Amino acid sequence: MAHPAAPDNPFSPPALKKVQIEQFYTRLRDANPAPTTELHYATPFQLLIAVILSAQATDVGVNKATARLYPVAPTPSAILALGEEGLTEYIKTIGLFRTKARNVIATCRRLLELHGGEVPDDRAALEALPGVGRKTANVVLNTAFGHPTIAVDTHIFRLGNRTGLAPGKTVDEVEKKLLRVTPDEFKKDAHHWLILHGRYICKARKPECERCCVADLCNFRGKSV
Predict the structure, then answer these.
(1) Angle of helix 97-115 relative to helix 76-91, nearest 10 degrees?
(2) What range defines the domain where residue 31 resides?
(3) Of the listed 17, 121, 122, 135, which one is catalytic?
(4) Does the annotation count 176 as an active-site position?
(5) Which of 37, 40, 94, 184 is 20 to 30 Å from the Cα of 141, by its Cα?
(6) Mean pLDDT score, 142-146
(7) 177 classed as catalytic
């Protein structure tokens, strides 16, 4: 996941109205009733490590690395046994791999020392782990444990501003607005719908408005339909 960039322009479009937001999410749900992350994992621990590795990297690149790593080291103790240098051999194709290797090893050690090797279902405990910030904690809480959190990455930040769904100058502002305006029935899956829509339809440089299921609800001034 890359870090969010600035919105398309400094003049955010009008915010969507409540009825538009309900229709927005209803259409995303109709198009994809059971969304999930594109990161590959079998356990909450493997999801946590994949999300740590995904910072400023693509999910495709992370999946290629973990496809080699997890068969050899699927648990905190197994990754810890590899050590930083051993782990580096598996993740060296990913950006910032040395820093990430250091954080992953430290996180594995802390999970074993403080949590019996299990990933905690708790925000404060997650954010206390090396390499885990609010966005990573949100992804794990939502995807592994079903919490109604919305992790704002570059795609969701762009989409929130571009469409008028949740305009904001910072990641935190967009997250707070999304949590406020998203109806409860959609909150559990909102993160996945929005990130996938931003990744494949509402793209950064050339949004594909002609095949967007919510184009008529979007307030983006530069839309092509």
Answers:
(1) 180
(2) 18-35+148-211
(3) 135
(4) no
(5) 94
(6) 98
(7) no
